[in-house]
Amino acid sequence: MRMLRWMGHETQERFFNSWLFRSGLKAPQGSERCSERNKPVHHWREEMFRNAVLDALDSPLQGLSAGRGKDLSMVFVLDRDIRPLMPTTPKRARLLLAQGRAVVHRIAPFVIRLRDRRVEDCVLQPVALKIDPGSQTSGMALARVEETEAGDVHHALFLSEVSHRGQQVHRNKGTQRNARRRRRSANLRHRAPRFNNRSIPLGWLAPSILSRLDNTVTWTNRLSQWVPLIRIDVERVRFDTHLLQNPELTGVDYQRGELAGWEVRAYLLIKYGYHCVYCGKTDCPFELDHLLPRSRGGSNRISNLVLSCHECNATKGNQTATEWGHPEVAAQAKQPLKDAAAVNATRFKLVEALTAFGLPVGTWSGGRTRWNRARFSIEKTHALDALCVGELAGVEPGSLKTLAITATGRGDHCRTNWTKHGFPRSYKMRPKMVAGFATGDRIKARVPAPLKTEGIYVGRVAVRKSKSFSITTHTGEVDGVNAKYCHLMQRGDGYSYAIV
Ligand SMILES: [Zn+2]
Fold it and tell me: How far apart are the CA of 142 and the centre of ligand 1, in A?
């Protein structure tokens, strides 16, 4: 206990509860307990404990990076001038913090800042940001780029899924519209109705779509501050029309699983809306059916191919679609899908916005992503999909955990709660802050023993005027935690975080 004498009683208790103590760091060598008598005393160790206790008070790694050993998420590292360095492992980050060589820069996602390093003295490796935009969830991955003779091999450094709040924005806009209509009919102060005087400016996007775009741009911006990015790879189109231009797909047999074949599959999946054209089945592995069978001289031309389930394909056998009683399928196959289905406005805008970062932006097709995923046998998740975007010779996903980033918004300016029809129902409290906390802040609460909610909670807080807060942790929600047991870890930034 000698080494703990300089700590106060409360600090000691915190120290014993801290991750540092549990993580198995040994007592200072050269103390009586050390088996090697003449081993020199490492002075930095005492300093290490002192700083560790100071830094560990809020157990920065707990909750977010709880997994030790193989399953982990990397820690972002900045230099002393807040410029990005290569990410490191949680273990190394713990040691750097313990030695006092680093300080905590940010908790979620975890970022540390070295106190004794400048980027000029470090060796940086190329890191690419890879994005798979989606309407509900976008995958975002960081990969270390290793150049080999066969091409680039991407080693995952960070996997994340950004969940958008497009639906919520859409609902809120509806409520806002109804509230405005009510103000007119109730003869309250209102904006004059507008009609026939509006034109949608070129490139206008709906607010719900814009919020999805903004989330992706926000996270690109944040990540570009934490890692040395050299380029951005983004999936812009569902399939590559250039690879579909040649109707015969000369030299490339679609069945061999070459890239062009995957573009054909992506095209047909979109065109037939993930349905079997004959029976309409949806949740099954699809096959490519030849309207005029190969055995009767049918080609691999895209207009001769449709999407079909295994049963229909087998039953149809050697007949044409018309002979089998589906002339409408043959007619539909003749009509080409418009390019608009492949390139949607959001993705186009996203690429435009990403070029503003001044990094080279590579745009790729969804067919290529699916091809890569099949070639390297990668599981289908949003984050791993993002990792498979682009021209690759290999992918090393490692055993990283995925950070689920959910857009939560930053609360409302308006203090009225509306019904969806635009009638005022109740009022929010005037200030957003209660006892120094606001809804969305990341906090740590230590509730003592005799209380019903006893325990330690780390998570996102929702505040009440009564100072009885509710905290959403990664395991669930706890209600009725008093403000006096809460400590602030990080201010709300419009997103909530969890490890998948
Ligand atoms: Zn079928």
Answer: 40
Q: How far is ligand 1, taken at its centre, from the CA of residue 272, in Å?
A: 12
Q: How far is the CA of 109 from the centre of ligand 1 (A)?
A: 46
CA distance linking residue 469 with residue 462, whole number of Å: 6
Decide if 125-182+207-245+252-411 and 429-499 have a common fold. no
d(CA 29, CA 49): 12
- The rounded Å distance from CA 314 to ligand 1 centre is 9
Expressed in angstroms and rounded, the spacing between residue 285 Cα and the centre of ligand 1 is 10
Distances (CA, A) of 390 to 240, 342, 373, 379: 12, 17, 11, 17
What topology is assigned to 125-182+207-245+252-411 in CATH? Nucleotidyltransferase; domain 5 (3.30.420)
Whole-number Å distance between alpha carbons of 443 and 452: 19
Sequence-separated (6 or more) residues with CB below 8 Å from residue 96: 88, 102, 112, 114
Q: Domain ranges for the chain, please list them.
A: 2-121, 125-182+207-245+252-411, 429-499
pLDDT per residue rounded down to tens, the chain (500 residues): 344 444 445 554 454 444 444 444 444 444 444 444 444 444 444 444 444 444 444 444 433 333 444 557 899 999 999 999 999 999 999 999 999 999 999 998 999 999 999 999 999 999 999 999 988 899 999 999 999 999 999 999 999 999 999 999 999 999 999 999 999 999 999 998 888 777 888 888 889 989 999 999 999 999 999 999 999 999 988 777 666 655 444 444 444 456 777 778 888 888 888 889 898 888 888 888 888 888 888 877 778 888 899 999 899 888 888 888 888 888 888 777 665 555 577 888 999 999 999 999 999 988 899 889 999 999 999 999 999 999 999 999 988 999 999 999 999 899 999 998 999 999 999 999 999 999 999 999 999 999 999 999 999 999 999 999 999 988 889 999 999 999 999 999 999 998 88
Q: How far is CA 89 from the centre of its chain?
A: 19
**Distance (Å) from CA 108 to ligand 1 centroid:** 47
- Residue 149 CA to ligand 1 center (angstroms) comes to 44
Ligand 1 midpoint to CA 335 (Å): 21
CA-wise closest residue to 55 among 8, 116, 97, 13? 97
The dotted CATH code for 429-499 is: 2.30.30
Q: How far is the CA of 311 from the centre of ligand 1 (A)?
A: 6
Distance 287 CA to ligand 1 centre (A): 10
